[in-house]
Structure formats: structure tokens, C-alpha cells
């Protein structure tokens, strides 16, 4: 039976925390069974102490999968940039533990698991999106490659980004001329700057605020950071579709179903009434309003000035009393 690693981890953690209740449950169902043969089989399901210890060891191995999977399974934030570091980290963690004596009972399983991780990792080479998304993370960029990849792979990643940047620059400026030397300066200005993302600020908001500083990079970020690292959310949306299209609503057209799904998502994530993000239109509107207020204040005599000021009013009230 195929079981996802994170699901197995959560199940085992819960069982380990409540092992006394698990043992009591097995004992009770075995005690209530009148057939002796079935009762014996149920009684054999009770875990011995050494079996619980092995389950705890298994949990120690699966915690790595759960942490890595959560790293690139977000539905609300870009997470494709975490895929390569997560896979490399998981492969390293399990490879190290294959030779450790305490994990001997899991040696074969660990070997098979590391091979599966290697297969997943090799598939990241089928698309450039993983590397590009890492460069589009402002406080990360190429730091991971410099720290963990050899010189040839680093250069390969740098060449890729140079190519992608130049192609996007040419597309945005609608010219077939070689994008030299303008693109070099823009590209290096971003790569050579130590950016900082403050706590509470998402990568998306950062790019929204810096779209004018790095227009070409921001254009790439718009395309690549929106790519989901896993298909979990799309599968969930597909499953929710079967709830929307019930037996009583089986004649809904595709555009209506799409609209209903989008509306449900917006309501569930409180997206209907959201403050507008940073944009040139918003900034221009605010600027015009501020200029208008300044002109009004400069050309209008306030009520306080006409009556002598607020302090004078207070004095007059005191005199009247």
C-alpha cells in the first residue's frame, strides 16, 4: 500500500503520543471477539516495547520528509525556490543515516528512499524554473549555489540567468538589437545588491514595491514565482469541484463552475475586501490627493484663523463663565 511520507509521519506521531490508548483499544477489541482464532490474531496486534521503540526511530527518519515537504507546499506564498534545497537536504539526511547502526532495520528502506529522492531531483533538471525562482528570491539569489554547488554548476546557473534576463529585456523593449550594455548593468545591480526582506513582508509584496527598481527582474518574478511547487492545491481544487457539481447541479456550465470555485476561494481566504497593493496607479492617485489637499489648505482660511484661533476660543469660553 502506497502511503505518503507526511501522512505516515503524522499518523505515527499521534500513535506514539497515545500509545497507551492504542494498546487499550487493541486489547478491548480482542477481548470482545468471541472467536478464539480471531481473538488471537487481534491480540497479536498489540505492540511490544521494542516495536514502539522502532516506531519512534521511524518517526525520527520521517520528520525530515515532513519538514522538507512543508517547505515547498505553501498555497499562499512562492515556494518553488525551496524545492532544490529541500530535496538536496533530504537526500543528504537519509544518506548519512543509512550507515548508522541504530538505523540498520531501515537500511533497505532508506536506500530505496534515497534513490526515489534522486529521481525527483533529476526531474528538476527538465525545467529551468527551479533555478530561476531561486535567483528571484531577493534575499537568496545565487547564494545557495555558491555554497553548495561546484564551480561548473555555478557557472551554468549564472549563464542561464544571463540568457533568461537578456531574452526578457529584449521582449519588453521590443527590439531585436543585442541588449548590450544596458542589460548587464541592470542584471548586475540586482545580483550585486544585498537585499533584505523585513519580517512580515512576503516576496510578492517585495517585488511589488521594487518593480520600478528592477522592471525586468519583476517581470520574470511575475511569471516564475507563481508556479506551484506541488500539485496539492490543484488536486484539492479538483476535489472541491465534485462538491460544487452535485447531483442537483449537474448541468452547470464550465464558466459557472469556474466562477463558483474562484468565489469560494476568495471567501475562504478573505480576498474579497483587501487593501490594494503597491502600484503606480495607487501611488499616482495618492500623490494627486495630497497635492489637492495642500492647495486647498494654502488658499483657504480656516475657521480657527477667522475666529482668532483655538486657544482664543477657549479663553472666550472662560470669560463667559
From TrEMBL:
InterPro entries: HATC_C_dom, RNaseH-like_sf. GO terms for molecular function: protein dimerization activity. Coiled coil: none annotated. SUPFAM superfamilies: Ribonuclease H-like. Residues 278-321 are annotated as: Disordered. Residues 201-264 form the HAT C-terminal dimerisation domain. Residues 290-307 have a biased composition (Acidic residues). This is HAT C-terminal dimerisation domain-containing protein.
Amino acid at each position: 500500500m502506497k502511503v505518503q511520507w507526511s501522512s505516515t509521519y503524522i499518523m505515527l506521531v499521534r500513535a506514539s503520543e497515545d500509545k497507551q490508548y492504542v494498546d487499550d483499544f487493541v486489547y478491548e477489541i480482542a477481548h470482545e471477539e468471541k472467536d478464539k482464532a480471531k481473538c488471537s490474531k487481534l491480540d497479536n496486534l498489540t505492540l511490544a516495547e521494542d516495536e514502539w521503540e522502532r516506531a519512534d526511530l521511524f518517526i525520527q527518519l520521517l520528520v525530515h520528509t515532513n519538514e522538507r515537504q512543508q517547505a515547498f507546499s505553501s498555497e499562499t506564498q512562492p515556494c518553488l525556490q525551496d524545492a532544490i534545497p529541500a530535496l538536496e537536504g533530504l537526500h543528504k539526511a537519509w544518506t548519512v543515516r543509512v550507515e548508522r547502526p541504530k538505523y540498520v532495520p531501515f537500511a533497505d528502506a532508506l536506500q530505496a528512499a534515497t534513490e526515489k529522492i534522486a529521481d525527483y531531483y533529476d526531474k528538476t533538471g527538465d525545467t529551468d524554473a527551479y533555478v530561476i525562482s531561486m535567483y528571484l528570491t531577493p534575499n537568496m539569489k545565487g547564494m545557495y549555489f555558491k555554497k553548495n554547488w561546484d564551480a561548473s554548476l555555478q557557472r551554468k546557473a549564472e549563464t542561464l540567468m544571463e540568457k533568461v534576463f537578456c531574452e526578457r529585456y529584449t521582449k519588453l523593449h521590443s527590439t531585436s538589437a543585442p541588449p548590450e550594455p544596458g542589460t548587464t548593468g541592470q542584471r548586475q545591480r540586482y545580483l550585486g545588491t544585498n537585499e533584505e526582506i523585513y519580517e512580515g513582508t512576503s516576496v510578492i509584496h517585495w517585488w511589488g514595491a521594487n518593480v520600478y527598481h528592477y522592471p525586468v527582474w519583476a517581470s520574470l518574478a511575475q511569471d516564475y514565482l507563481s508556479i506551484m511547487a506541488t500539485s496539492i492545491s490543484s488536486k484539492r481544487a479538483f476535489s472541491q469541484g465534485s462538491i460544487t457539481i452535485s447531483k442537483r447541479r449537474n448541468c452547470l456550465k464550465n464558466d459557472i463552475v469556474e466562477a463558483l470555485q474562484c468565489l469560494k476561494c476568495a471567501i475562504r481566504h478573505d480576498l474579497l475586501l483587501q487593501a490594494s497593493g503597491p502600484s503606480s496607479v495607487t501611488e499616482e492617485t495618492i500623490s494627486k490627493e495630497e497635492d489637492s489637499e495642500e492647495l486647498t489648505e494654502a488658499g483657504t482660511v480656516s475657521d480657527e484663523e477667522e475666529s482668532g484661533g483655538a486657544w482664543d476660543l477657549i479663553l472666550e469660553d472662560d470669560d463667559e463663565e
